[in-house]
Amino acid sequence: MTDGVEPALGVGMVGYSFMGAAHSQAWRTVGRVFDLPLTPVMTALCGRNGTEVTAAAARLGWASVETDWKELIRRDDVNLVDICTPGHTHCEIAVAALEAGKHVLCEKPLANSVNEAMVMTAAAESARASGVLSMVGFNYRRAPAVTLAHKLVAEGRLGIVRHVRATYLQDWIVDPEFPLVWRLDKALAGSGALGDIGAHIVDLAQYVVSDRLNGVCAVTETFVKERPLSDVSSGLSGSVGTVPARGTVTVDDAALFLGRFAEGALASFEATRFATGRKNAMRIEVNGSEGSLWFDLEALNELWYYDGTENTETAGFRRILVTEPTHPYLEAWWPPGHILGYEHTFVHETRDLVHSIAEGTDPAPSFADGLQVQRVLAAVERSAGDGSQWTSVEEHA
Amino acid sequence: MTDGVEPALGVGMVGYSFMGAAHSQAWRTVGRVFDLPLTPVMTALCGRNGTEVTAAAARLGWASVETDWKELIRRDDVNLVDICTPGHTHCEIAVAALEAGKHVLCEKPLANSVNEAMVMTAAAESARASGVLSMVGFNYRRAPAVTLAHKLVAEGRLGIVRHVRATYLQDWIVDPEFPLVWRLDKALAGSGALGDIGAHIVDLAQYVVSDRLNGVCAVTETFVKERPLSDVSSGLSGSVGTVPARGTVTVDDAALFLGRFAEGALASFEATRFATGRKNAMRIEVNGSEGSLWFDLEALNELWYYDGTENTETAGFRRILVTEPTHPYLEAWWPPGHILGYEHTFVHETRDLVHSIAEGTDPAPSFADGLQVQRVLAAVERSAGDGSQWTSVEEHA
Amino acid sequence: MTDGVEPALGVGMVGYSFMGAAHSQAWRTVGRVFDLPLTPVMTALCGRNGTEVTAAAARLGWASVETDWKELIRRDDVNLVDICTPGHTHCEIAVAALEAGKHVLCEKPLANSVNEAMVMTAAAESARASGVLSMVGFNYRRAPAVTLAHKLVAEGRLGIVRHVRATYLQDWIVDPEFPLVWRLDKALAGSGALGDIGAHIVDLAQYVVSDRLNGVCAVTETFVKERPLSDVSSGLSGSVGTVPARGTVTVDDAALFLGRFAEGALASFEATRFATGRKNAMRIEVNGSEGSLWFDLEALNELWYYDGTENTETAGFRRILVTEPTHPYLEAWWPPGHILGYEHTFVHETRDLVHSIAEGTDPAPSFADGLQVQRVLAAVERSAGDGSQWTSVEEHA
Amino acid sequence: MTDGVEPALGVGMVGYSFMGAAHSQAWRTVGRVFDLPLTPVMTALCGRNGTEVTAAAARLGWASVETDWKELIRRDDVNLVDICTPGHTHCEIAVAALEAGKHVLCEKPLANSVNEAMVMTAAAESARASGVLSMVGFNYRRAPAVTLAHKLVAEGRLGIVRHVRATYLQDWIVDPEFPLVWRLDKALAGSGALGDIGAHIVDLAQYVVSDRLNGVCAVTETFVKERPLSDVSSGLSGSVGTVPARGTVTVDDAALFLGRFAEGALASFEATRFATGRKNAMRIEVNGSEGSLWFDLEALNELWYYDGTENTETAGFRRILVTEPTHPYLEAWWPPGHILGYEHTFVHETRDLVHSIAEGTDPAPSFADGLQVQRVLAAVERSAGDGSQWTSVEEHA
């Protein structure tokens, strides 16, 4: 564990809504639980509204505030910029921060377009030359069960991967009276279920099987095309007393696509906000020639694994409770069977990033990984807009 | 229950392999458990090999044998012909039987092509005019939990249906040394996973939501392209001592497709024989604006239902153990909690068919329903062969 | 499979209610599915009411009827007497049948008292000398998952057994207006939940771990002490239009007890008819020094097994879907993943009994096994009536 | 959320092993997530070894250290003493702290004996008169699903409670070579599985059903009677390189008991460290005349509830994912479906305690509640030592 003697790593964070709260919890906790080579310091929180950001900083544990992210980037006591704002702002902030020599942790999706993601990736590669690192926040890679799933596939325990099926099912906008929040506005959010939760399962799938999608066919749908207008500044929850005026939903409610991985596996993806009763059901199943596994985020401490090489008399999907000291990230936590929660994925993300910075290694997922996800999402949108026809994931567009 | 005074219904069955054994169990049992308006009599079993069919008839409980299905059809004591042979023979037998005035129960898929299915449907409609009935054997409609699912959707308990996702996952040919049985030969089986198990989930989905698919985009794959030759007369199991010669697999190992229902729901389907560890995992989930449900054939006595109109404090997917006397088909069976098995779906199928015949009502699924499934499968094959582009399910081709 | 050439085994059954229907289904099916050395013939059904037994015989498939079990026993064409009547009649019928040289299959519990069970066991041992066999109907031993559980323990896969916990939870008399059926009358049923379902879990536990309980401490309770009178001839279901008169419930609603096995394992048992929402929840978990397993009758095709010798990285309880051809009884049934139901346990019971009779081996569970269960139940009642103090299971009383 | 303007509440904690780390995480987090009327300040950490406690304070976030708990109690900046030491030290520290006018949070079990617990309870009641509060740390009451379970029962949703069955199964000392740590030494730990995890399920059961056990019968067992000696200062994990000498295990490995609640429900309890494969399986099921519920700590975000008043057609145990804003404690956390972990139970415990202190209300569970649990444990030990005979839980001993 960290004893306070390690050099400090000043963190400046932009945004303090849902993701900001989650990242704050991670920064507050990581050095208390893990033995880190650098001591993260919660130096400054940045938001446009001075009053609000000051209150948020006090609540979340940040030592100071900024109201202009450009000021944040200029501060000498900030070594790492953590970007938790909506997607349309990622590119500008990240590129500026990298150019200013700050390491960057950027929430997913990396950007709202492939072009922005390309610019960011170029900036990241450029900065890398001078030792400045960057990482995109696909936090679910750091659920211990997911990390273990990746490890088992990488070790060949599943043999040749034949099938990947991933779904991310939520139901928070099933009600047609749920208001038109910013996540339903294409200008701010880039896309709907596709970019918000579809991005997660694309990264998850590619990470778990260590392969990349090279083509897709897709359909998308907006089931409820108009919704009550509301203050679009809020995130996941609607405001009280909405006005009767309605606006047009400009993003997808659901996106379904089939894909092929470079090494031949077939894949199926579904991201939707209309799956009544499914709250945060991010699931993945992988079938290989020698075994299978599946995972469900609503039970994030469990990995289900089938060893196809066992005698059929006792073969079966086994529920691995991923809480043993031998499991990824677990030696720092509680005894076996004492489960972790959603927020721990962020603690693990910051742990790994701090190690990379201290050791000069490349953190993953990189901006290039984030760009590749963006290219898959773009291919999905192109296919959906073009009669579902098979669409390559461009490698060099 | 049947007391033996009811008029007899002479049954003649063609084929006595896997499906033949399952249908025999149904015919032996149905009148012992349910109170039927006609008494099924297991009159004759038909197969090409006289020795084998005689042994099979003794074992399975049939009173006599025929070695030519045309003879079977001619018999006055046969009122119903039950067709349990491979798909490429269905059309000829069914049409002849209908023309001879025999009721027909035909195993799924209805045929190996849309054209054959159209011929059969026309014959069925023709025969209907003279009171001769026909039914296609999508037996899973008669799992009590599936029947209940259909009922709940039909009653509006789920509101507007938004999503259907159905998979049928098996793993019996994961081993590349599994031989080239008839189910892997396009000439006999028509298609692979698509027609065998994909047909089941298409019918299941359409039945549960009482709607029809009107378009699809698809991919199919044959992962193992050559396999050891073997006696292709057997069904699901490979023969011992296979010769080293190899032949080409001419059907799909897996088929994935996305679809849209006429009333707007999106759907996802996957049928594969390469899902290691999944033995008979036919699953369906339906999400509607007011509720959801899901079912898994490996736990066929359970239906999971989410009532979206409940208070969120106590809302949750509930496991309905579909074994209450108030549940479909259950009043004739055991007390609550005493579960039924796979073969009971066939008992229920024959029960319903006998009632239809006695009462002169139209049994479901009809040949027209079977044809519609065939059209969906054909659209899947066309889309998969044409860059996955969106393909309409033809209504009048 | 049976080809009809094997010698016949004439079966005469007494009783045709719930158990009679289940046994009939077994006798009708067993020779159609399994390859048997003798051909069971459903010779005669016996019941006191001639009209009713005639109707039942027609419905259930019995060739003739008797209205006096003594006549049944005298028939030369009856080789095996299958006793499906309430417990207070078992002793007289079984002893008479054995003395008449008939093999006996007697439903559980073996008797309503230890004394009766001792008489029956003595008769069985006596008859054994002249090749007459007997078996008590603890059918759950023949759920394939239970048979597999027994096998795994017997092979030492669990190491030293430390804990057994078994519950049998039902809820069919939670409603205080449920009438006073015969199962709630001590004179007919012997005891309540204890003898009816507690007997099952005692036999199950002893069978799975191949050991015997040698002491218990216990509590029992009758929650609803008076109930509406009704025709007590019916079994599990109450009659319509009950009269207002009430009678006293003379059996236990629930029985809980702790026990020790001869080889040192601790055990916990609970049998109740007051577990709202639990329909037929017979469950057992066994923990040993090297592994564990558990089973739930409501999911009777599954066995959950934990191999404690595995690497902790991938250790976990695995769900074995006990439907492989290599699993007990399964080679005669359907392909993997096609599940069996409650009634199949009786088919397997008759299969094994027929083999024992043909081969002259001792069927299990024997009457001595049934007697031992009875002794455990008696010890439970003594302990419950005597301040829960530790009470030995008598071996020679 | 807390804005820092609220008055401070100085916390001094004794002990920094497993429980100390968990409580530290709670104190660091509670004011960042919940809106508190007092601001907890992590004033001082106390431990006997100055070097170790200094390192622990730095790691865990405490502002200063003490090496004598008596000094800690004297400090003016400490308002609350949080006792995380082994059970044999609780009484002395707690009584002294209360007498010094400090609020006390004491880890469970309250003490190692009824006598100590009585002394503590008297001290707590005495201190209460001058506004000094005390609480015992049965943290699992604060798992949101458990709080919800309590609420449903209290609202009468289950009707008359008939059955409670609770187990706490672990497997960390199955290996006979696991060393003789302090938790296996009666002088330090008081008892084994009984006091450590049995205490949890007694409190849990009494809390969930709002009733008290008034009698028990019990058996206990020490399966492995000698173990390698080791440094007994460590907690749950054995030390490396144990010496070959062995010592006697003086506590129980497993404790099983049956009980009756004051209002008539029957209960079954089992606490063991020998349940191979069970890591932290604290489970409870409650059956009432109108409904049932169950909970498993290994899936701590789920509550399963059966509403017995529903139509049987759709009745079933429902999995409530207890992550809605309307659920206990959840409005301060993440969106629905984003699960919490083990440590959150401590955050909620400190939240409620801070509110009680600020508002002058009595926190629960009180020392009197802890004493009552101790009396149950004592009755269990007496019964186990006296032939399992029924033993009253003394109310005034």
- Helix and strand sequence of chain A: EHEHEHEHEHEHEHHEEEEEEEEEHHE
* CA-atom Rg of chain A in angstroms: 21 Å
On the 0-100 scale, what is the average pLDDT of chain A?
A: 94
Say what the CATH topology of the largest domain in chain A is.
Answer: Dihydrodipicolinate Reductase, domain 2
Low-confidence stretches of chain A: none
Helix % of chain A is: 25-40%
For the biggest β-sheet of chain A, the strand order reads 16-15-14-13-7-12-11-8-17
Please give the number of β-strands of chain A.
17
What does this molecule look like?
The structure is a homotetramer of 397-residue chains. In chain A, 31% of the residues lie in helices and 24% in strands. By secondary structure, chain A is α/β, with parallel strands linked by helices. Chain A has two domains: 8-140, NAD(P)-binding Rossmann-like Domain (Rossmann fold), CATH 3.40.50.720; 144-365 and 372-391, Dihydrodipicolinate Reductase, domain 2, CATH 3.30.360.10. In chain A, strands 16-15-14-13-7-12-11-8-17 form a nine-stranded mixed beta sheet. The mean pLDDT of chain A is 94. Chain A binds chain B through residues 158, 162-163, 165, 167, 169, 171, 174, 217-219, 221, 223, 254, 256-258, 260, 264, 266, 268, 270, 272, 274-278, 287-292, 306, 308, 315-317, 383, 387-390, and chain B through 158, 162-163, 165, 167, 169, 171, 174, 217-219, 221, 223, 254, 256-258, 260, 264, 266, 268, 270, 272, 274-278, 287-292, 306, 308, 315-317, 383, 387-390.
